[in-house]
Design brief:
Helix content is 22%, strand content 15%. It is α/β, with parallel strands linked by helices. It has one domain. A two-stranded parallel sheet has the order 1-2. A two-stranded parallel sheet has the order 3-4. The protein has a two-stranded antiparallel ribbon with strand order 5-6. The radius of gyration is 20 Å and the shape is elongated. Keywords: NAD. Pfam families: Aldedh (PF00171).
């Protein structure tokens, strides 16, 4: 049925577990839930690679304050999903998502043909 590998999702794991601080090359997602926003930013910033943080919050007035404090290379909220982001970090090598990601695979090629008197 194709090459789809179902991701493994870990919910509310402790930050001393190896998958939390080591780079794992597999379809793996960790989801953590917090009540206190300072606890969330501290927890997120303790991750060494910190490529992406997706933030889902009930009170949108706090979102910009939280985004400024999180050190992750890219941050997203439900309304920002799909926007091209920079993932150049210890692990990422290019942009992700959006039109800019597609153009990373495109090389412009120009071909000049001398048609002489045929025009």
């Amino acid at each position: 049925k194709g090459f789809f590998i179902k991701p493994i999702v870990f919910i509310n794991i402790k930050d001393n577990i190896k998958i939390y601080y080591k780079e794992v090359f597999s379809p793996l997602v960790t989801i953590s839930s917090f009540i206190i926003k300072e606890e969330a930013t501290k927890h997120t910033n303790n991750i060494f690679y910190s490529l992406r943080a997706a933030i889902f919050i009930k009170n949108i007035t706090y979102i910009y304050n939280i985004i400024k404090k999180i050190k992750a290379r890219s941050k997203s909220t439900p309304s920002l999903c799909g926007v091209s982001i920079n993932s150049k970090s210890l692990s990422g090598i290019s942009r992700e998502l959006g039109k800019a990601r597609i153009t990373a695979y495109i090389t412009v090629k120009a071909v000049y043909v001398n048609l002489g008197n045929r025009l």
